[in-house]
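lol ok so funny story. i was supposed to be doing the assay writeup but got distracted and ended up predicting the structure for this chain instead. priorities right. anyway since i did it might as well share w the group, maybe its usefull for someone
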Amino acid sequence: MVTAALTAGATRPHIITRATEHPSVLAAFEYVERFHGAEVTVLPVDGDGLLTPDVLASRCARRRFSCR
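and the output, tada:
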């Protein structure tokens, strides 16, 4: 994911992840944010550890995404 974000061609890549990601994954995203200027959004999860569509929509409402 990190390589994909950095090679996507965006000036400042935006990575979206969940708070329940493995700590090593979150550390990799923190590294990319700190040293490569990416924007990282860590989304909260509900009591069952799930990401709700409403949370995702509220955090991404102003952005356009391309899925590959």
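The two ends are 12 Å apart (CA to CA). DSSP finds three helices and two strands in the chain.
back to the writeup now i swear
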